User: Fold these one by one.
Assistant:
Number 1:
Amino acid sequence: RKEVEQDPGPFNVPEGATVAFNCTYSNSASQSFFWYRQDCRKEPKLLMSVYSSGNEDGRFTAQLNRASQYISLLIRDSKLSDSATYLCAVYTSGTYKYIFGTGTRLKVLA
Amino acid sequence: NAGVTQTPKFQVLKTGQSMTLQCAQDMNHEYMSWYRQDPGMGLRLIHYSVGAGITDQGEVPNGYNVSRSTTEDFPLRLLSAAPSQTSVYFCASSPWTGVSTDTQYFGPGTRLTVL
């Protein structure tokens, strides 16, 4: 089993739709969680960190469920510009490693 | 403040050749790492470093060497290139306290083709 798993998609959604991605992790000692956005042939860029209490940034909401060991990303009112690959990342302090999921492709259709 | 820089942007090698991918950051970050990204595989950790003089292996270290003589630089060496090393390579850095860490900042990547 991979340490961090994501549904690769693609998710094709119409503009204005709400879409949610999940990311599961296997190491219960993991302590820091992140969502990155990656555009085609570009480097990943931080979208948001994920905190235990959940956090929101405009149309984006991230949640952490430690009991079930997953993080989620909700995008409301999807825009064409949201089309990208969304990567989750998990940092585990005992291992000193950031491990990434394979990414979920999102395509927002006009 | 340039952030994380990588050179070269593109490189073509023949099987068996060696080369070094350069990575530098000007944010005084202790933590640096190298990833490779292949289609459908996501980012896979090659090597990482938690400070000058300290390096360790990631998920896919075979065929790669690293060193960290300064805080700023973290070069990745391919000793004898193989076609399986054709990939996009990303370097990243992060502030690190020894216990917790913040997000990573990525360089623009190096696209390597091994023939």
Number 2:
Amino acid sequence: AQKVTQAQTEISVVEKEDVTLDCVYETRDTTYYLFWYKQPPSGELVFLIRRNSFDEQNEISGRYSWNFQKSTSSFNFTITASQVVDSAVYFCALSEGGRGSQGNLIFGKGTKLSVKP
Amino acid sequence: GAGVSQTPSNKVTEKGKYVELRCDPISGHTALYWYRQSLGQGPEFLIYFQGTGAADDSGLPNDRFFAVRPEGSVSTLKIQRTERGDSAVYLCASSLTFRETQYFGPGTRLLVL
């Protein structure tokens, strides 16, 4: 069965600290896609990144970086030098790519990040 | 360009009433998904449309829930005989085609009294 686990319910850091949000996934498919979305207090889910199962290269985008490790079924997200505007709930999600899958997203429960000035 | 839009942004209704929630996807996106998000939880899949047809409705909780997309663009989620447990944020997302990146609308916050 497919599942996404975000073990950290809430994290609080002080501005400029680095913070890592953990994501562990389960799937039987060999082809799948992993995502991170940000949900600020306004409520709208904002797409951050998509990764397919065949591409284990880490990715960096400004202060954001992602570490994908198939060996541990993890797709962790690091924010470097956090800022108050990073305060939000962050969701990790999985979409299976096997035959018969329709692309619907399976979300974790989210990690609420609070960055204090 | 315009993103996914949803109306109304908030809906308050009484138990037993019928409600319709509307989603207008990104122009040109053929795939449309509905999700429901309860407080403190991640969104949960309800139904997926590819074009006009519901390709997967396995996430609909019961037969009080129904959705349509008659012309392959705008979709309406319909809930009959609403119950207090239906209170949640209903999210719509669209993608160019299935398995592509989904972009979400702002959601409709439904409160059933």
Number 3:
Amino acid sequence: GIQVEQSPPDLILQEGANSTLRCNFSDSVNNLQWFHQNPWGQLINLFYIPSGTKQNGRLSATTVATERYSLLYISSSQTTDSGVYFCAVKNTGFQKLVFGTGTRLLVSP
Amino acid sequence: DAGVIQSPRHEVTEMGQEVTLRCKPISGHNSLFWYRQTMMRGLELLIYFNNNVPIDDSGMPEDRFSAKMPNASFSTLKIQPSEPRDSAVYFCASSSQTLLRDRGSEQYFGPGTRLTVT
């Protein structure tokens, strides 16, 4: 099946810093989503981005489907950005959403 | 929209007991997914339904696990009998997608049920 790799696995930032999270996938996809799992365990939808670029406030994401990767940018990080960021993809021809192992982010004041 | 609703939010039970988790998908969504999250295995898909029909249950770990979707607004995941290794957070998600045309669509997750089996 499709493989999803995220990097870095862990990231520690000072409040106000910028960061880039990466998601690599091993096959063509027709769905790619970025989620934030907050410290209370809730999975929050950030972006639905099988291709192209989107922005939402301090967050933006870019997916280059032909090169099989996606990037999540966090600018001016805040302590509330802490948590785990997951990339999940759905392979063309299949219905399963396959999750990466996540990037654990800690933003300190 | 209330989003995906799950109940209970927390469940503590003794080994051997039956556990039933409930999910109400977003109104109008025709696909429903049950996931399990553990530290060891991360997020894994257990089963998904399209138009109330189970499409893929290959992720269901054992015969002790069963899932039903009697109508478009309700689904249950049952574990009988429960074991300590079933302790995990169980998420339900829903989306609006067309199975045959193989188009991707965004999945929305419920708040999860944290299950502890002692």
